[in-house]
Each structure stands twice: as C-alpha cells, then as structure tokens.
Amino acid sequence: MRYSLLCLAVLAGCASSGDAKYEQFRSNVLNAPHPQSDDARRAECANIRAEMARVRGLVAVGATQPGMWGAIYYAEGQKTLAVWEQRAADIQCSASFSNTTSKDPLTQCMDICENRARKPAAECFQTCTQK
Fold it and tell me: Taking the complete model, does pTM exceed 0.70, yes or no?
C-alpha cells in the first residue's frame, strides 16, 4: 500500500511537470509568427508534415511498451499531434496535405489580392495579368 502511494505521488509529480512542458510547447508552436510568403508557408507545412510523421512513428513504437507505458506514449503522442494539426490549420496547410492540384497562378493571385489586400476585382485582375 505504501509503495502504491509512493508510485502515485511520483507519477503525479511527473505529470504536473510534464503538463507545464506540454503547455510551453503548445504555446510556442501555436503562437509562432505566421509565414510571410507562400513559399515560407509551404516550407513550414512540409516541416509540420515531417514532424507529424516522426511523432506517429514514436507513438507506434511507444505503444508496444508493456503496461501503462504504452498508453502513456499513445496519449502524449496524440496531444502532440493535435498541436501540430492545429498549427497546420492555422497557417492553412490543408492544401499542402491533400492530393488535389493547386489553383492556377492567375486564380491564386486573384485570391490573394482580393482576400488579403482587399482590392476590387478589376484592379486585382489588372495587377495579376501584368508581367
């Protein structure tokens, strides 16, 4: 009984310090500045995709551990994946993660001009068709 209480106290202490580290990680990832260009966004999306694959691999290996360790690895991995998925959604990586083809350059330019610069369509068309 005494041994069980000691183990529980140690695990609770690890969980609380782990929670602080997780919250710091989560804050760092989600509060990072957004990429300034499409190339930077694509590069960050590729890095996020690679990190998510790495975490999935660790979860797969960790899940084979005996007893509660497998469940702990799985739970921690899922929390980490959720953070990376949120970051990917925040910077609009969904197109980078899909198999669909991207829009043609004129459509992309028009979208950026109208949605980000908030210019009229005629002005955007003139800007996007000039070379």
Answer: no
